[in-house]
Automatic annotation (TrEMBL), chain A:
<keyword id="KW-1133">Transmembrane helix</keyword>
<feature type="transmembrane region" description="Helical">
    <location>
        <begin position="293"/>
        <end position="315"/>
    </location>
</feature>
<feature type="transmembrane region" description="Helical">
    <location>
        <begin position="215"/>
        <end position="237"/>
    </location>
</feature>
<keyword id="KW-0812">Transmembrane</keyword>
<protein>
    <submittedName>
        <fullName>Uncharacterized protein</fullName>
    </submittedName>
</protein>
<keyword id="KW-0472">Membrane</keyword>
<feature type="transmembrane region" description="Helical">
    <location>
        <begin position="342"/>
        <end position="364"/>
    </location>
</feature>
TrEMBL record, chain B:
<feature type="transmembrane region" description="Helical">
    <location>
        <begin position="370"/>
        <end position="388"/>
    </location>
</feature>
<keyword id="KW-0812">Transmembrane</keyword>
<protein>
    <submittedName>
        <fullName>Uncharacterized protein</fullName>
    </submittedName>
</protein>
<feature type="transmembrane region" description="Helical">
    <location>
        <begin position="20"/>
        <end position="37"/>
    </location>
</feature>
<keyword id="KW-1133">Transmembrane helix</keyword>
<feature type="transmembrane region" description="Helical">
    <location>
        <begin position="225"/>
        <end position="252"/>
    </location>
</feature>
<feature type="transmembrane region" description="Helical">
    <location>
        <begin position="281"/>
        <end position="304"/>
    </location>
</feature>
From TrEMBL, chain C:
<dbReference type="InterPro" id="IPR003439">
    <property type="entry name" value="ABC_transporter-like_ATP-bd"/>
</dbReference>
<dbReference type="GO" id="GO:0005524">
    <property type="term" value="F:ATP binding"/>
</dbReference>
<protein>
    <submittedName>
        <fullName>ABC transporter ATPase</fullName>
    </submittedName>
</protein>
<keyword id="KW-0067">ATP-binding</keyword>
<dbReference type="InterPro" id="IPR027417">
    <property type="entry name" value="P-loop_NTPase"/>
</dbReference>
<keyword id="KW-0547">Nucleotide-binding</keyword>
<dbReference type="InterPro" id="IPR051782">
    <property type="entry name" value="ABC_Transporter_VariousFunc"/>
</dbReference>
């Protein structure tokens, strides 16, 4: 087993694929940096300006008569008017740099919105306003900031905020990247089946060694992400590792940036192991690198193509492959809402990994391999 | 050469991966036609109730308002602009009631033009476009509304002046050709480009597995690459076949549309729309797509003979296609010369329609520039490939 | 006609081919014989221009050289090398392979059927090559080259994995091709067989191509007789050398002792025979003309 692992390392060390993957990750990190830099400057102010417009346009859906007499106007209309006021407050607060006012208005705004969801006629204006989940997350964020006395910043370029954004983006497509990276994991070897057929180790050990050497490279890629981000410390500083992020992990809650990054790393590693094993199995079954890739991608997008699948099969590990959406509470906003919990995701992915391993152990032997 | 082409083409068609791509495209086309297209809910739809409600409210206001020196300025403003606006709404309602579609198109054109003028020039903070543009989180709702109203105005003008057969499906852009137009405006080009990358990624490198069989063929490496590129190009173009199944399904549901339907084209320089026919629009799209295919294929051929690894072909091809997502920020064209990057032209339908010019505040992201940039890039890549393949020391795989 | 002009190839300082100059003519079958790694395949790769020699050049028909990629194509029209059986397209049938080669070199399509018949491939030629046995694949590779019908054919280990009848059939086809005026260059281990149809045979050693005729002459063994003694031991060889110091005696790797003596000295044969009967009991020995294998063993000893 160890000798096999050593062999794999030797083979992988000279594999161009790993070099190219490293290159791509570096391009990604620096590209993302330039993207953040252009996008960043006035994020919060711009958001508030657009929110104002959205509320204002929601208001146009009401007969102007409502405005004349608050007593007779609908509750929702009144609520929206107040929302508009607080949005303006927030925007002004950012412009004149009064973070406390921003937070207070934010809390009130979130309260108003929370009330609005149950008011009559809400469906009419639903698209103009944040969803229940988004509002919940906002509300938690404001309350946390208010409670701890932290200061709202717009900074996204220093180390930790940058990493946070980076991992949020990575969360959406890490599975895709891993699929492309690992889809040919055994195919090369299948061209020399006579070689592996004769190895004096069982197929599952062989697969384990393969996975281990792939995971070693995944580790290098992840390390590379951090290393490539290091230079930004010099230019923009470390940033605040404890700056809060609101997430949904079964409950709505606020966690520090560093914890989010930690969760992301755990997910990234689990997803990588899962994908590599899936590639192994599909490689053996389909004997074609591209078919493996296509099947993986189809499985990945299936929950988006058929959203009802998610509530039907909540234990499908592919529901959890996009952990950014998962932590955003995306599943709560489906036509049939499901509470996908962060921890369950880890468990389901873990269980599927173990099941796949057992499957490999039970059903595959090197002797049965056929040349591609 | 012909024999080699035939050989490559047959290999291409019987390649499991390529068959899978066609099957997946067929699935997606049917999925779109059966599930997504029917639930298409355009913002600018023909909604008699909405028109009537607006018309009656304003009519009521105009009938009751008394303008004198004490009137609130906003009331004066409303009283000044509503009569003409309402006139158009009235015409639209009458035309709808008597089913005179061309007349409806005529008055709708005027309605959009007037609305846009009022909202965009005079309506800041008072008048709004259709509320559905102001979705939560949209930072550019006004700009979106402005574009959509100008677009609709131009479109309805075209309907009114043209001689195409009109219907509600045409007005709401649901016919097969218009659906295609919307798709080209959306993600279809990117999907096709990714397919092209997948088709081309192994077209050279698969020879590694049968090297001694093909190595001695009396054909130069350059010609082999040309043949392979040609096969990949034809293969990429054949994606039309599975897509056309979806097209036919939409056509059965909502009608085919008509190649003379007007398609509004935005010009950043004129800040205004002109229309071209659907046929011309599609032709330009196909042309730009073909140039994209050529660019990607030549790039992947070059990578194939230099880096010689399929993974590199896949990811570097994708980097070119998806690069725009990185540097794209609305209005960027104003500060950066993004018209020189081929990746700025990846949204083929939006380039042809001029929407990219609008989004990027740049007069240079035109169809013609696209063709020019792409052909220059392709020519350079091909030239490099030619030189490499002709050097004496070069080895094919 | 192929003309090699002082071809030199070295890999990391080691000379594989040294100043090889030689000409192969139409209507000739050339045999190349050498142990592994001595440069047979290198020579073929140089002829194909898969490998650029460090010095020297290859000239075809007195006019074509690998100076440009254009010429390479022109040369490849005259030239084919037998594909490796592991490189066949497993999902294509044998016939499709043959058609491919026929169409690539634009040869007479009739050749396909003729070759299939000549090689007795009818029963499986329409099946996918993925199902073929090694011998079937080898025959297909040979057939592909025959179908390409090029003026010059390079064959590396053409007889590998074939049974004796197949070897015979292929030899006959080779002879027929020679009569058609083809130049055929064969690298092979099957020496006896090669001796039968090859016009010239070369051994490759230390980067040189040595013609067997020259070797015969240089070693002074032209027309010599050989006695073969199986199950020889170093002691026996020692004794023989002492008893017959004037003769060339060798102990081969397969424990055969070769005793060489000039043809006209029949007295020697009797002496040796008597000596052997005395010292090497219960073992028969054979007397015969010197074969290619004997020469090979001697040469690479």
């Amino acid at each position: 087993m160890w000798k096999l692992l050593k062999n794999d390392f030797l083979i992988e060390r000279t594999n161009k694929k790993n070099m190219i993957a490293c290159l791509i990750v570096a391009i990604f990190v620096f590209g993302f940096f330039s993207y953040t830099k252009i996008e960043n400057s006035q994020r919060l102010i711009d958001e508030k300006a657009s929110e104002y417009q959205s509320v204002a346009s929601a208001l146009t859906k009401f007969q102007t008569a409502d405005a004349m007499d608050y007593g007779n106007g609908s509750d929702l209309y009144y609520n929206l008017l107040q929302q508009q006021r607080y949005v303006v407050n927030q925007s002004m607060a950012m412009k004149v740099d009064r973070p406390q006012l921003y937070l207070e208005s934010g809390i009130k705004l979130a309260e108003l919105r929370a009330n609005a969801f149950d008011m009559e006629g809400y469906e009419k204006v639903a698209t103009n306003l944040p969803s229940r989940t988004e509002n919940q997350l906002d509300s938690l964020f404001y309350q946390f900031m208010d409670r701890t006395g932290m200061v709202v910043t717009q900074d996204a370029l220093s180390f930790f905020p940058f990493l946070l954004d980076l991992f949020m983006v990575l969360g959406s497509f890490w599975f895709i990247f891993m699929s492309i990276f690992s889809c040919g994991i055994l195919i090369e070897e299948f061209h020399h089946t006579s070689l592996i057929k004769g190895y004096p180790v069982s197929f599952d050990k062989y697969v384990l060694a393969k996975c281990a050497s792939s995971m070693f490279w995944v580790g290098i890629l992840i390390a590379e992400i951090f290393i490539c981000s290091l230079p930004f410390i010099y230019f923009y500083g470390l940033g605040d590792a404890n700056y809060p992020v609101a997430i949904f992990d079964g409950n709505f809650k606020v966690i520090p940036t560093i914890e989010y990054i930690g969760i992301a790393l755990v997910y990234i590693i689990l997803i990588s192991i899962f994908t590599v094993l899936l590639s192994v199995i599909l490689n053996v079954l389909l004997k074609n690198m591209y078919l493996t890739l296509f099947v993986q991608l189809l499985l990945f997008i299936a929950p988006s193509l058929f959203p009802s699948l998610v509530s039907l099969v909540p234990f499908n590990p592919f529901n959890y492959m996009n952990f950014t959406n998962l932590l955003n509470g995306h599943s709560l906003e489906l036509a049939e809402p499901v509470e996908l919990e962060m921890l369950h995701g880890l468990i389901y992915i873990g269980i599927s990994t173990v099941l796949m391993l057992i499957g490999v152990k039970l059903f595959f032997t090197t002797g049965k391999l056929k040349k591609v | 050469m012909r024999a080699y082409f035939k050989f490559e083409f047959i290999q291409f068609l019987f390649n499991k991966k390529n068959i899978a791509i066609y099957v997946i495209l067929l699935f997606l086309a049917c999925f779109y036609a059966l599930k997504i297209a029917p639930s298409y809910d355009p913002i600018e739809k023909v909604d008699r109730d909405e028109i009537e409600a607006r018309f009656l409210t304003r009519e009521d206001f105009l009938n009751n308002v008394v303008i004198d020196e004490n009137s609130y300025p906003l009331t004066r403003f409303a009283a000044a602009i509503y009569p003409e606006w309402n006139e158009y709404d009235k015409q639209r309602l009458d035309a709808l009631d008597s089913n005179r579609l061309r007349e409806y198109a005529g008055s709708t054109y005027k309605w959009y033009e007037y609305s846009d003028y009022m909202i965009f020039r005079n309506g800041n903070g008072l008048l709004y476009y259709n509320p559905r543009y102001y979705t939560a989180g949209n930072l550019y709702a006004t700009e979106d509304g402005h574009y959509a109203y100008m677009y609709s105005a131009s479109r309805y003008k075209g309907y009114a002046q043209g001689d195409s057969e009109l219907s509600m499906d045409v007005f709401e852009e649901r016919t097969a050709l218009q659906t295609l137009q919307r798709l080209l405006h959306g993600y279809l080009p990117i999907i096709l480009l990714v397919c092209c990358i997948l088709f081309t990624a192994d077209i050279v490198l698969k020879d590694k597995r049968n090297l001694t069989v093909i190595k001695g063929f009396p054909i130069s490496v350059w010609r082999r690459l040309v043949v392979k590129g040609g096969v990949a190009l034809i293969g990429s173009s054949l994606t039309i076949i599975p897509l056309s199944i979806g097209f036919i399904i939409v056509a059965i549901q909502h009608g085919m549309g008509d190649l003379n339907l007007p398609v509004p084209i935005f010009s950043y320089e004129a800040r205004a729309f002109t229309t071209i026919t659907m046929g011309e629009y599609l032709f330009q799209n196909v042309l730009l797509m073909l140039f994209w295919f050529l660019l990607l294929i030549s790039l992947l051929l070059l990578l194939s003979i230099q880096i010689r690894h399929e993974f590199a072909n896949l990811v570097l091809g994708c980097v070119v296609v998806f690069a725009e997502f990185y540097y794209y920020v609305r209005g960027l064209g104003f500060v950066k010369e993004i018209q020189w990057y081929p990746s700025s032209y990846v949204q083929v339908g939006q380039i042809v329609a001029g929407y990219r010019e609008y989004l990027n505040n740049s007069a240079s992201l035109t169809f013609e520039n696209g063709i020019a940039v792409m052909s220059v890039c392709t020519a350079i890549i091909l030239l490099v490939t030619l030189i490499i393949s002709k050097t004496k020391r070069f080895k094919y795989l | 006609m192929i003309e090699l002009r002082s071809i030199g190839v070295n890999f990391s300082g080691r000379d594989i081919l040294k100043e090889v100059s030689i000409t192969f003519h139409p209507g000739e079958i050339i045999g190349l014989v050498a142990p592994n790694g001595t440069g047979k395949s290198t020579l073929m790769n140089v002829i194909m221009n898969y490998l650029q020699p460090n010095s020297g050049k290859v000239r075809f028909n007195n006019e074509l050289e690998y100076t440009t990629k254009k010429n390479e194509v022109k040369i490849h029209k005259l030239l084919s090398m037998m594909p490796d059986q592991s490189d066949l397209y497993n999902h294509l049938s044998g016939k499709q392979h043959l058609k491919l080669y026929s169409s690539m070199w634009d040869s007479n399509p009739q050749l396909i059927e003729n070759t299939i018949a000549a090689l007795g491939m009818e029963s499986y030629v329409n099946k996918k090559t993925g199902t073929y046995s090694l011998g079937m694949r080898q025959r297909l590779c040979f057939a592909m080259q025959i179908v390409s019908d090029t003026q010059i054919m390079l064959m590396d280990e053409v007889m590998n994995g074939l049974d004796p009848t197949q070897v015979e059939i292929i030899s006959q086809i080779l002879v027929k091709k020679r009569e058609e005026g083809k130049t055929i260059i064969i690298a092979s281990h099957l020496l006896e067989n090669l001796e039968k149809y090859a016009n010239r045979i070369f051994f490759v050693k230390n980067g040189n191509l040595d013609s067997t005729e020259d070797i015969h002459r240089n070693l002074g063994v032209n027309g010599n007789m050989v006695i073969r003694v199986p199950e020889g031991t170093p002691e026996l060889k020692q004794k023989l050398s002492v008893a017959f110091p004037e003769l060339d005696i060798q102990l081969l790797a397969n424990s055969v002792i070769l005793i060489e003596f000039p043809k006209n000295e029949s007295g020697t044969l009797e002496n040796i025979s008597a000596f052997l009967n005395e010292n090497h009991e219960h073992q028969t020995f054979s007397v015969g003309k010197m074969t290619l294998s004997d020469l090979y063993s001697k040469y690479y000893h």
